Amino acid sequence: MNIYHQIRRKDCLSHQLWPHFKKGWPDTGRPVHFFWGLGDGQSAKIQECMDKNEEWWFVDTGYLTDQITRYPSPKIINPDKTYFRIIKGGLHTIRGKVGSGKRLNKLRSQGIDVDFKGWYTGETKHILLCPSSPTVTYNINGISQQEWIDEVTNELKKHTKREIRVRNKPRPGNQWWNKDIKEDLKDCHCLVTNLSMAAIDAVLNKVPAITHNMNVASPVTGRDLSKIEKPLKPGRETIREWLQFVVENQFTMAEINKGVAYKTLMEQQV
Known about the structure:
This protein is α/β, with parallel strands linked by helices.
């Protein structure tokens, strides 16, 4: 049976999504769990699934998508252009089938930025640290967000003299609110993160990245902080295949409702 774990917040987007899953995702009769985010005790429930060896799927905002208005409450502005990632047994997709390019072309026709623009060829300056949320950082790295920032900063200073900047998740009232990440990526030498999807923004905007091996961008990013002065810069074909793979794991509510998400993901053999 399919089990949809609810977030108690009444305005959580899971309340809009789960009805579409119930229509478009077949019930196999065995326990299959669906989670939205890690808050509200979801992390502990996911661990229970892992302990029992029960199948679970993680659902959250998409990788390449129209943006959702988050404050003062979540709101989907353009349902046809708003995609949600659906991942089996993890927070991000890191392996699967490379798509034909049809889905990537669809996003391009919708005005969503999906084009690799090459790498910076001129002088670059700073390094940008983009930590995941405190909850994700603790779940993935086992330390607080600030501890992650301090550890990465100290390690980087062993290998570079460049300025190290930090960009946290934009929230109302903080210094990154209403500041486009492209401003921080201008003249950026390399972005460093654990699981933040800022790595996608970096790659699409000429900046290489170093990430955790569970980041969705891991196929096109480095791991070794000691290589910060010469970060990995894959070629155009590699980036294109990665993008075609990524979009095979995100879907609109209509695609979830009609079973397109289920069919596509089963073909991925995830």
